[in-house]
Amino acid sequence: MTNLKKALLFALFLGVLVLYSTSCSQSEEVLEEVTEEVQTTIDEYRINPTPLSALMVNAEDREDERVQKAMTKIAEALKLIVQQPIYTDYILAEARKTDYDAVLLSDFIAHFRETEAMINEQLSTGMRSSALEDLIAELVYENIEYDPVIHVANLSTADTEKMPILSPGVEALDDDEAGVDDHYVFWYFHQNGAEYEVTVSEEQANSEDAAPAFVLSLLSEDDTENLEAGTSSTARPMPEELTARSNHAIHSHEFRIDQRYDNNKRSEFYVGGRVAYNNTIYYFGDENGRLITKVHKNDIGDNLTRWHYWFHPDDFPGGSVVFNTFERDWTHSKKKLGTAIGTNSTAEFKGRRKYITDCYWKIDIDNNDNLTYPLDTDYFDNNWAETYVGEEGNITLWKVQ
């Protein structure tokens, strides 16, 4: 073989080798891209990148960590149940009958006797087996006993024809770069039979055609009694025709919160309240509370400012006001914040949070007044501002013209 032929054959070999290497490299890149997509999203959901066991750790509050672990075990045992229409249809129907959008797990089991054995069978698998009764006994926080409930977090907007997603009520890690803020971990049961652990935001859960968002949540005795009685709010929204006649309004500005109820970067600082005037009780803001601002964990205990409109006092001369501020968790069921008492009516008001004590005026949950500084609309006739002090913070209200 001549040197020329040898050179041509060697060049041809190199060309084939380069083409093969390039093809393999491109295939690997495509595979990596596909793999990365599969690992990070499924349908419209973002796959949870953090182990659930790590998300339950709460070094600042070991009591909460213990309760959350028990809640998660109970929720895991409900996975098969929430995939069966006979059970999910009942949960959705019963949740609509209450002001809490929730069903007591004990009531559900009493209606479907076979489900207790189903739940305990799931709990008995694995290295750390448990019994439902023992896990419920673990649901005690700050000396308050809780009952587990199945809360439908998006009951008013969900597409009830879809299979529900299920959450143990554990918050996902915030990721500012990925736009992840206030997401919760859910299990998504795909039509192909696979189960995915995903994160879901409140906006996503309330979007059009979203699946029902079932959450294992908690209720204390006060709230379970109201749930069983079907108690609902009798408060009305502020009438627009009155507000138009007002010449000044009440806003909050300076505030401080001394307790962090959120195990993530930011706490959702909400206010809920009622005005009792003549024979009617009105709510200001939204019926179940309105966001004042989000507070970063590093700002807990600091004096902060944020203007936030509350109500027009001229609309309710002599009216009595009761309010509470709280840390809101959108997945969890509503819990009592306080009670407004009018001339001929009484109305409890509530806000969504994990524990009933996740608020900043704890003593006022069971009273019809803010005991430290009772608030009435006439106070602002001759005063420009007042600071109200709770057990876990304070807030200053201003008359603004």
Describe the protein.
The protein is α+β, with helices and mostly antiparallel strands and 401 residues long. It has two domains: 45-229, no CATH class; 236-400, no CATH class. 27% of the residues lie in helices and 31% in strands. It has ten helices and 21 strands. Strands 10, 12, 13, 14, 16 and 19 form a six-stranded mixed beta sheet that branches. Strands 3, 4, 5, 6 and 9 form a five-stranded mixed beta sheet that branches. A four-stranded antiparallel beta sheet has the order 1-2-8-7. The longest helix is centred in the N-terminal third of the chain and has 38 residues, at 3-40. It starts with a helix and ends with a strand. The relative contact order is 0.12. The model is unreliable at 4-14 and 16-38 (pLDDT under 50).
Question: What topology emerges from the helices and strands here?
Answer:
Blueprint: H1 3-40, E1 41-42, E2 45-47, H2 52-55, H3 62-76, H4 85-95, E3 102-104, H5 105-111, H6 114-123, H7 132-137, E4 140-141, E5 144-152, E6 165-167, E7 184-189, E8 195-200, H8 202-205, E9 213-220, H9 221-229, E10 236-237, H10 240-243, E11 249-257, E12 266-277, E13 280-283, E14 290-296, E15 304-311, E16 320-327, E17 334-341, E18 346-352, E19 375-376, E20 385-390, E21 393-400
Parallel strand pairs: 6-9, 10-13
Antiparallel strand pairs: 1-2, 2-8, 3-5, 4-5, 5-9, 7-8, 11-15, 11-21, 12-13, 12-14, 12-16, 16-19, 17-18, 20-21
Short characterization:
The chain is 27% helix and 31% strand. By secondary structure, it is α+β, with helices and mostly antiparallel strands.
Extract low-pLDDT stretches.
4-14, 16-38
- Count the domains: 2
Number of strands: 21
Shape: globular
Strand content: 25-35%
Which class of secondary structure composition applies to the elements? alpha+beta
Radius of gyration: 27 Å
Q: How is the biggest beta sheet arranged?
A: 6 strands, mixed
